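hi! just following up on the protien thing from before. the input was this:
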Amino acid sequence: MPVKKDAPWKTLQDLIAEAKASPGKITVSSYGKLTAADFVIEMLGKQAGIQWNHVPYKSTPEAITAVLGGHAQAAFTTGAGGLLDSGSIRILAAAADRRLESLPNIPTFKEAGYPISLAAAYTFCVPKGTPQEVVAELSRAQKLAFEKYGKQIREGMEKVRFGRIS
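and the predicted 3d structure came back as:
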């Protein structure tokens, strides 16, 4: 959950306290309605008993740009690692079961008292009508790749998820 580097909230609890004190005054952005980010916004709002304005954008860059430009106070996104590394933003919390290896100083929503965790799902797609034997071979190859290189694949996907591709 990125906020601008000079935002007054140092923790998720700080932001929630302000949202409770001023219902509907905090604007949050995301990369779209009915996305994983939208569900986190809804879950956190219900669990914390807060109301805020959600402005869904078409993409993560647009949602974070809204925060940097002052149009939203916080964003619910993925791929913010580069801006975190540059010092442009701070991340208040991550929707994960445990602290992420690539973001060890970022607490989880669970640590803040909100049991919200989303796993990033990456899928392998083929066009409709692809012969079943091709689908089976691709599936077998994917399984073998994960058996052999699962740790490296997970690490790489985490870098993609948080925008830390080098």
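The chain has a mean pLDDT of 87.
The first helix runs from residue 12 to 21.
cheers
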